[in-house]
């Protein structure tokens, strides 16, 4: 929904998106992992977005951070596969 700029008070400022979705991947257990890029810091974040209905891995919880790092490291791994 678009908000006319004149209706915003001077103390409220729109903010940019901090996380940009780069990829979604289904895991063999049925869970879904997502790769994001945190723009202000240029950091890659991989998190578990959804736990599969039949996943038996106790360590899998929705919202869990699986990995943090330099986005270039992730791109190098993708090139190797």
Descriptive report:
The protein is mainly beta. 12% of the residues lie in helices and 35% in strands. It is built from 1 helix and 4 strands. The chain has one helix at residues 71-80, and strands spanning 19-26, 32-38, 43-50, 65-69. A 4-stranded antiparallel sheet has the order 1-2-3-4. Strand 1 and strand 2 form a beta hairpin. The model is unreliable at 5-10 (pLDDT under 50).
Topology:
Layout: E1 19-26, E2 32-38, E3 43-50, E4 65-69, H1 71-80
Residue runs with pLDDT of under 50 for 5 or more positions: 5-10
Query: Main beta sheet: strand number and arrangement?
Result: 4 strands, antiparallel
The radius of gyration computed from the alpha-carbon positions, rounded to a whole number of angstroms, is 17 Å
Topology as a string of helices (H) and strands (E): EEEEH
Count the strands? 4
Quote the distance from N terminus to C terminus: 41 Å
Quick recap of the structure?
With 81 residues, the protein is mainly beta. Helix content is 12%, strand content 35%. It has one helix at 71-80, and strands at 19-26, 32-38, 43-50, 65-69.
List keywords for this structure.
mainly beta; 4-stranded antiparallel beta sheet; single chain; 4 strands; 81 residues; 35% strand; globular
């Amino acid at each position: 929904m678009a908000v006319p700029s004149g209706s915003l008070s001077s103390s409220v400022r729109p903010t940019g998106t901090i996380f940009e979705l780069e990829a979604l991947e289904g895991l063999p257990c049925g869970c879904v992992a997502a790769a994001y890029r945190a723009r202000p810091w240029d950091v890659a974040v991989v998190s578990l977005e959804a736990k599969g209905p039949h996943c038996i891995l106790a360590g899998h919880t929705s919202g869990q951070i699986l990995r943090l790092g330099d986005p270039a490291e992730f791109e190098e791994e993708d090139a190797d596969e």
